[in-house]
């Protein structure tokens, strides 16, 4: 089931803004469904709401924009790249890249990564609270008409809505009154960012995968204390933080685990020590992340001799899958499709790893440790095929490929990434 993302603009006195609904009478929160085009990331979906329903509201004009967020986009390079690469592009091309090339997509996604969040228990609705100030109202008013209300009066302008929607509004009023959206006393989850600073900004001249927003938007839930560590800058959590940590999330990287760079060496040492010293921590490990923890615990990673990308069919081991407690409530699926972007692979696993899936190009596609604390994919469950298609398109245009060359490259993304893979990751992380 697709989740619905809602943006709640809230002032310091707890007044909220309801925006005029274009499709019908009345006012409501800004909202839309999160889809595969957002790679199922709620924060990326939230940025799309801003672009579509708030007339591309520039976050830099609001008091809530920090220097750290503003630096996520190099606006000078972006303007130059847009002029060079897209000024003469056809309208269908501009439409195709409307969101992936929009600088507000990255500013707002990173703001929402840090914004207070609340979701219902069924995870059907996610609410991001945008904490604005009085000085921001004129800027917002210029983009869209809104109605300002004390949160306790939320039910007044929605009498024409059905009972389901009224219940949601009443629930949000309760959340605001109790300040539940500000709570961070749930799970502490650490995200390891493996990107160098120059590749962690949107320049406009090249393809850009906003992995921080992808993972945050997919996996963060209400009450989570979600912390990001710039590991390439030797930024690691302290022992005090690790004592209360529920999980460490490790994504892909352009680096290799057999490199002898300082941060890679330190990372492998950290993973070995942390796995042994903190038995309550679990590790969700994707691509480079899975390779790193495998290498740290006695496995071996080598280069494949080529670069593997696109859709790939996984064959799961039913016997091994069925013995796992963590997935006992899930129906076994013998085959799935996953997206691949890697040049290295695990050729030897630690002795206590269980093999769960393989593909024609890689044997160790999905692994889990016997104690069920480490789980990961060689491929990328978090990249939907439609999202990765835009990334391939950006790469093609950045390298001056023709439309025909781009379409040829895109053929390997003809099948949809299976949401079942992402479900496995979510169940493991929350378990």
Largest sheet: 9 strands, mixed
Total of helices: 15
Our measurement of the CA-to-CA distance between the termini, rounded to an integer number of angstroms, reads: 20 Å
Which radius of gyration do the C-alpha atoms yield? 22 Å
Topology summary:
Blueprint (H helix, E strand, L loop, with lengths): L3 E7 L4 E6 L6 E2 L1 E4 L8 H12 L13 H4 L4 H12 L4 H6 L6 H12 L2 E3 L5 E7 L5 H5 L4 E5 L12 H16 L9 E6 L17 H9 L5 E6 L8 H5 L1 E6 L11 H16 L4 E5 L1 H9 L3 E17 L1 H5 L12 E14 L4 E6 L7 E4 L4 E4 L7 H14 L4 H8 L8 H12 L1
Parallel strand pairs: 1-6, 8-9, 8-10, 10-11, 11-16
Antiparallel strand pairs: 1-2, 1-4, 2-3, 2-7, 5-6, 12-13, 12-14, 14-15, 15-16
Helix pairs in contact: 1-5, 1-8, 5-8, 10-11, 13-14
What does this structure look like?
The chain is built from 15 helices and 16 strands. It has a nine-stranded mixed β-sheet with strand order 9-8-10-11-16-15-14-12-13, sandwiched between helices. It has helices at 42-53, 67-70, 75-86, 91-96, 103-114, 137-141, 163-178, 211-219, 239-243, 262-277, 288-296, 318-322, 385-398, 403-410, 419-430, and strands at 4-10, 15-20, 27-28, 30-33, 117-119, 125-131, 146-150, 188-193, 225-230, 245-250, 282-286, 300-316, 335-348, 353-358, 366-369, 374-377. It has 431 residues and is of the alpha/beta class.
